Amino acid sequence: MLLHLLRRPFFWIITAVVAGFVLIPALGNDVEMRESLLLAALYITLASNLNLMLGYAGYINFGSIVFFGLGGYVCVWLVNAHAWPLWLSLLAAGTSVSALALFFGLGILRLRGAFFALSTIGIVEAVQAFVQNFEPWGGSAGIYLSSSIFQPLGGPSRALWVIYFLMVAVMGLSLYLSYAIKISKFGLGLLAIGQNEDAAAILGVPTPLYKALIYSASAFLPAITGGLYFFKSAFIQPSDAFDLSLSTEALVVAMLGGQGTVSGVALGAYLYEELRGYLLTSDTFSHFQLVVAGVLLLVIVLFFPSGLMGFIHSRFPRSQKVLE
Amino acid sequence: MFGILASIIDGVLVGLVYGLAAMGLTLIWGVMDVINLTHGAMIVAGMFGLYLLVSGLGIPPYLALPPVLIGGFFVGVALYWIAVHRMVGRPPLMSLLSTFAVNLVLIGVGTAVWGTALFNVAVSLPGISINRYTFPGAHILAAVLAAVIAGALYLFLHRTRLGKAVRAVANNREAAELVGIPTTRVLALSVGFGVALAGVSGVLIGTLFPFTVLSGDGYQLKGFVVTVLGGFGNPVGALLGGVALGLLEGAITPFVPVSWTLVIEFVLFVLVLIAFPGGVFARRGSM
Predict the structure, then answer these.
(1) Which of A206, A226, B100, B182 is most buried (CB neighbours < 10 A)?
(2) Which domain does A157 fall in, by range?
């Protein structure tokens, strides 16, 4: 499997992108660039994991933010209340959220298509209600971390670099995971589910199991990213952790780049992050960020349903061989 | 003993309004298999229509119903041409995304204009008191109006030519086209009716409870539950589903915090879908 990956050009493209993310801010010691790329890495991670559901299996998950927020809570809580080291808390966050997703997934993935999408909205409500009433996590007030938590990482300014490199590592893993799944037999089964679930089931794809597995897999890395993100801000509360606009933006990003492609989603995430940065600083648009995201999504869905990559692939058919 | 009866009556009153709030959603869903994710935003638009008409023009709250009904209809027809027309017959994923996008725009504009502050429209109607219990007049009137509107919709769908055309299109679009029904126009009208119903229910809910720009989400989620309980596109089923939901809320409120209500309803949604994929009170296609 691994050797198989190493022979493919796209594997090296991903590696080059990750290397760029590491080297560009590190060489110039450019903190501003680092913060901007950190957000881009966050968007890429969220969107490419969402894409596992949306682009491969054809299932819309409106509540992907739940993985991010819960991962953040588990990590911050373990660091704060149990003094676990960061790496162990992150792993625990990813594993527990992924296990929870498997458990939920076996239930709600019995619902097909649109009903599944609706129930993911309900999952957000359920998790939010739980966290707001869960005393160990501080209820609606949230959890604050003391500034001393950055000491094991070598003080605040070094810690921020460490967190950035970890974020980029998670982004790289997301891209490799998306790609590895896409070229595997498992991925083929998922694409078949996305095309026609009944036909896939008849041809012997174990559809309920595959759907639950991909739902669970799409939870792991976003949960770790959530852990890193909220560890970095040293503060977590329900309204930030389950901010629906982030999972909305992940949807826009995945559609913008081209659902079902790995490179498109990464490109879409980068472009969206740049656009968002521009909108937030512009006087006219800073209040209309959601409106712009909505208009963008509508235009994509109506006129370019296969996104940027679909456009590139149709203009330059040869690119399909290299850019997955 | 009378306390139980009173809470049942209260559940029915609130439930009828929930049923009305779901009716537009279930109509569009049943006719063209499109889940209108702007429904919550349209309910909120009805609420703010009420607020603006009452505070701006000083008219009595219930006189806001006709303008919102008519305005909602045109907004709905516009929504059809903007976001739904190209999606009919395509995978449900795409219409979910397109209506979701319009919802983002509406909510984005709403929060930019009004923020997320609470708004309130005062309605003073004498209530009905029995023993120690008082049923607020606004509640009773809203429930009665909800039942009347559901009845009117039922008669429209079953007794008028246009209503029969709507049901024919819901049943089989190709066959309807073959017998000469202009299906595209019927679909556009159906979205118009669906959004008009959302707006009207927004007005009635606005006379009962305070609201924000984001209030629609909760009613939309309740709308999903009501739809799967009552069947697709069935106004009477929607009322029954709404009443079932109202009774359930009345029964669980004393025992659980308010923030859990939606969660329990959502669990019900999943369980109902797994147990009765076509709705409890009606079977699919019965429209």
Answers:
(1) A226
(2) 10-243
| pLDDT per residue as tens digits for the range B70-105 | 999 999 999 999 999 988 878 778 888 899 999 999
Task: Give the Å distances, CA to CA, from B37 to A125, A133, B84, B90, B126.
Answer: 16, 28, 11, 16, 36
* Dist CA A11 CA B187 (whole Å): 48
- Interface residues of B toward A, Cβ cutoff 8 Å, are 35, 82-83, 86-87, 91-94, 96-98, 100-105, 107-109, 111-112, 221, 224, 228, 257, 259-260, 262-263, 266-267, 269-270, 273-274
Q: Is the pTM of this model over 0.90?
A: no
Contact yes or no for A126 and B273 at CB 8 A: no
Any domain includes A238 = yes
ipTM above 0.95? no
pLDDT of A99 > 90? The answer is yes
In whole angstroms, give the CA distance from residue A319 to residue A9.
12
> The tokens 């609606």 sit on which residue?
A140
Residue pair A178/A323 in contact (Cβ under 8 Å)? The answer is no
Q: How far apart are the first and last CA of chain B?
A: 39
Closest CA to B201 of B222, B176, B174, B173: B222
Cβ atoms of residues B254 and B10 within 8 Å: no
Domains held by chain A: number: 1
Residue A16 is assigned to a structural domain of this protein: yes
Concatenating the DSSP letter of every residue in A132-167 gives: HT-GGGTTTT-EE--GGGGGGGTHHHHHHHHHHHHH
The tokens for B110 are: 């709403």
Report the sign of the C-alpha dihedral through residues B155, B161, B163, B169, in that order.
Answer: positive
Spans of all domains in chain B: 10-216
Please give the Cα distance from A273 to A256 (Å, whole number): 12
